[in-house]
Amino acid sequence: MVASGPHGFRAVLDGRFTIDKDNAVTYNIKRPAGISPDADIPHRIKIEGKWSLDEDHNVNFIVDHSSDIRFGEDILLSGEILSASSGSLLLSVKTGYKGGATVRTYRLRGKWQTDYDNRITFIADRSAGGHDMLTLGGAWDVNKRHHIIYKYKKRIPGGKKSSERTIHFNGYWDVARSGSLLYVMDLKNDSLFDFRIGIGIPEFRGGRSLMKYEVGIGISKRKRPFKRLVKLYGVWKLSRNGKIRFEIGYAEGRVESIDFDTEVKLKDKYMVNLRLKDMLGDDLGINLTFTRDMIDGKGYVRLEHAPREWKVLGGIYSRW
Questions:
Q1: CA torsion angle for 15, 21, 22, 27 (degrees, to 10)?
Q2: Residue 271's pLDDT is what?
Q3: Beta-carbon contacts of residue 218 (< 8 Å; ≥ 6 apart)
Q4: Considering the domain boundaries, does residue 94 fall inside one?
Q5: SS3 call for 52
Q6: How many alpha carbons lie under 13 Å from residue 311 in its C-beta half-sphere?
Q7: CA angle centred on 25, ends 24 and 31, rounded to 5°
Q8: Torsions phi, psi for 251 (to 5 deg)
Q9: Which residues constitute the domain of residue 42?
C-alpha cells in the first residue's frame, strides 16, 4: 500500500488490514528490515472511509481523502460476499503483498433490514457514528424450506463469463400488523425484513394449507416493481379460546408459527367462522371457516378470502 502523510513519509508499506467490531479499518505496518527504529514510519494507520456495494455486488471500502494520511487509490478494500448472518456480513478480500496476493476473510457488523422498495439492505455500523447502507439491487426469492435467498450473477475476472452466487438468510416468517409481512433473523439486534404487502390469501392445494402474499420489489434500473409471490405452506392450529396459529416448517425440522388474534362467530353447531386480526387487534381482511372438530386438530372444511371463496371436498380443491 502506498501512503503519504504530514510527518513527511511517503512509502510502499507492507502490512495487514484489520476491521474491528465498529467496522473501522486499520492498517498494521510491518517495519522493513534495515529501516532505523527512528525512521518516521507509523506502526499502524487508522483509515477513514465508508462502505458501499457496487453493481457487481463487491463490498468496497472507499477512502476519505480529507484525512491527514493520503492513499494512492479510492477503493482500498474490495471483497466478495461469502455469507450473511443475523448481525454481520462475511467477506472474502484479496490484498496484494510481495510475492503475490493473499485472500483473507473479514466480518462487517450491522443489521439486515429492507428499504422502501422492499429490497434487502445491510446497515453497516460506523465507528464515528451513523451507518452505511449496502442495498442488494436485485429481487430476492423464497426457497422450498421457506428461507429467503438472494441470487446474482458475478463476473469472472479476466473474461466475459459469469457465475451464479447465492446468499442465504436464516429466519422465520411472522405477521405483525396489517399490510406488513415480517421475515425475522434476530429481534435482539433488530435484524428483520419488513415487507409491505397486500392482503394475504389462504388456499388449500394438494392436501396442504397455504398462505400467499404478493410483494412488490423495486429493482435497480427497472421502472416498475417486480412482483414476488411468497408462498408459505403450513398447518392451521386452532385453540379452544379462539386463538389461531399457522405453523410453518423450516430446515432441520424446525417449526415456527404465525400467531393471529381472531373474531369468532358460530355459524351453526358444526361450523365456526374466524376473522383474522393481528396481535394489535387490527383486521387483516382474512376469513377462515372451520368445522368444530378442527379444534381437536382433525382438519378444516373451507377457506375464504373476499370476494373469492374456496371449498375443500374430500381433499379436492375446487371453486365454491
A1: 0
A2: 73
A3: 116, 117, 118, 119, 225, 226
A4: yes
A5: strand
A6: 4
A7: 140
A8: -65, 150
A9: 1-137
Whole-number pLDDT of residue 278: 82
Q: What is the pLDDT of residue 40?
A: 60
Query: Based on the structure, what is the number of domains in the chain?
Result: 1
Angle at CA 302, nearest 5°, toward 240 and 285? 80
Three-class SS of residue 262? strand
DSSP-assigned states of every residue in 199-255: --EEEEETTEEEEEEEEEE--TT-SSPEEEEEEEEEEEEE-TTS-EEEEEE-GGG-E
C-alpha cell at 152: 446474482
Taking the mean position of all CA atoms in its chain, how far away is CA 67? 33
pLDDT of residue 247: 92
Is there a domain that residue 235 lies in? no
pLDDT tens-digit profile of 223-269? 788 889 999 999 888 766 667 889 999 998 899 999 888 887 776 66
Is 214 among the domain residues?
no
8 Å CB contact between 166 and 145: no
Query: pTM to 2 decimals?
Result: 0.81
Q: What is the dihedral of CA 184, 53, 137, 182, to 10 degrees?
A: 10
User: Of 16, 32, 22, 165, which is closest to residue 93 (Cα–Cα)?
Assistant: 16
Q: What is the pLDDT of residues 147-169, one digit of tens each?
A: 999 999 988 777 778 889 999 99
Rounded to an integer, what distance in angstroms lies between the CA atom of residue 203 and that of residue 200? 10
Residue 287 lies in a domain: no
Intervals of the chain under pLDDT 70: 1-13, 31-42, 65-73, 96-100, 206-207, 221, 239-242, 267-270, 291-320
Name which of 262, 45, 292, 109 is nearest 175 in CA terms. Answer: 262
155 beta partners: 162
